[in-house]
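Predict the 3D structure for this chain.
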Amino acid sequence: MEPALLDGQGLITVAAGRPRVGQIRCFEHPSRAGFWLVKRVDAVHDNGTITVLSDNRTSTLADSRTFGPVPVAGSYRVLLRVPRRQT
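Done. Predicted structure below.
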């Protein structure tokens, strides 16, 4: 599967709404402060966490397969992908 976002592409996010399977969410890496990830929700759990997976699962393990479920609090729903500016 192709990645949903390209390198350098911007995002417009909102910290509202309940996550749903298939939704793209943005959140801070659980063990790397200041490093943000954009992943697709694979499962929503009753304990306030979500399981997230990369769209391109063969090239990265930076998702819940490595660090487990992430808290919904502090995650943001991606509303819009902003195209890269052509120069």
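Residues 9 and 86 are 11 Å apart (CA to CA).
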